[in-house]
Amino acid sequence: MASPPAPSRVPGPTVADLIFSSEQANHNFSRVLGDLKRANLGISNRLRSIRQDAAFVGRIAAETSLPLVANERCGSWYIPPEHKGASAYFKSTDGHTGQRMGRCIIVDSTRRGKSMPDALSKTVPTWCCVLNRALFPSSPSSHALHVPQDVVSVSEKSQMEARMPAFLASFQHLEPDLSTIRLHLHKPLQPLWRTQDDDDKLGAGAFAARLAAVRRAGLHPVVCCTSSRRVRGAELSEAGYVQGAADDTENWALGLTAPVFWRHAGALLAAPEPDLPPLIGRLLREDGQWRAAAARETRTRVLPHVSVGSLPLCAAAAPGEPGEAWFVVAIVPRTTPESEWRKDKNRLEVGLGAGKGPRRMLRSALRHVSAAVEAFLRSEGGGPAGLAEKQVLVSCETGKDLAVGVALALYCWCFDEGGHGLVTSAGERPSFTKTMIKARLGRIMTAMPDANPSRSTLQSVNSFLMDWVR
């Protein structure tokens, strides 16, 4: 005898089902509900959620003994600075990495409504596949594309696979130094995925078993760790937990950064919500003084004659070694007309402002910067003669965006392919193409893996160079 069908589950009421006696009551309820949602997404709940998710990330690192790589911008919020091995900048459409150990945990998060960010489900697997094909061409068994089956559909995976040959060709056009990469990557890469839901879905030992199998197969595991727990219902039902709490910091953090948060986590987490804005302001002022002192020792040489640093570094008029002649280009976060840009024999201060405005103004500024730097590099007087002793320092507020774009423009405009010598004349300059510019950017990124020039910065550089006519 067949058992009776199970009774269907009747869905519970939602906010939309509520009926109010008047429009005013409905308006008041909506206002209260909005206030509750905003309170739930306040700074205090976000910071507590970040700490909770960071504990999960720390547990995975301890279980696997793998270094942690933060996928910026928000990945660093989930890793205390002393535990962060490196940074990466995988996005939904592109990315790069400086894997030095050949195995790592890449940390990122995603907001409510998704279980995993595209960077971890699609971009990192794409890069693993491309690198395997480039580094191990005679090992076709390592050329397959691996994606999380519960996130990426079969049809989408098929579309991604069809694009792999073109991705590989684009990568090879950059002329990467594969021999150097092979010194660090002796075995193919294999992506794995870890989320807070895995233990409930697969059992506590499932991930450890998968990781062990990858290692036995002679592969380097690249663990894609989604730090945030997935919220399926309304955020108000999560007792203050915010999925992807570190996303969109420009909208809630009041200037607070991940390093400042971790240096003062105790005070920030103990402070009530109303006290957080003034506390954050004070900590940021103190941090500015700390960064100004630390930044003087922090600059990266990206080319034989060009270094990149953050703005406090430029307080020193001559940061070089004895016998060196330096020219400092400072992209300062205040807007000033070109007529007020500070320029002397060894320094050019360009006021492009803060926010997204500087990137839009960068194109026109590059003409002046390139001319000033080229004049310095070709000059004989005012310092040690000859190019060998001359150095250029380019800095911006972060040392990773605008300064890198300017360094790229100088590399293309002033120097030969190796960056050791100057182009002898304007007629010797190559025809600038996106492929050529991208290849030179790749060399800079190899020297400075944590550089992160924005798309608009690179567009300004491309426009400046490609619009040039002999």
Automatic annotation (TrEMBL):
What's a single GO CC term here? cytoplasm
| Domain spans labelled Rit1 N-terminal | 36-283
Q: Which Pfam families match?
A: Init_tRNA_PT, Rit1_C
Give any GO molecular function from the UniProt entry. Answer: tRNA adenosine(64)-2'-O-ribosylphosphate transferase activity
Q: Where is the Rit1 DUSP-like domain?
A: 347-465
Q: Taxonomically, which superkingdom?
A: Eukaryota
Example GO biological process: charged-tRNA amino acid modification
Which InterPro entries does the entry mention? Rit1, Rit1_DUSP-like, Rit1_N
Its recorded name reads: Initiator tRNA phosphoribosyl transferase
Lineage here is: Eukaryota, Fungi, Dikarya, Ascomycota, Pezizomycotina
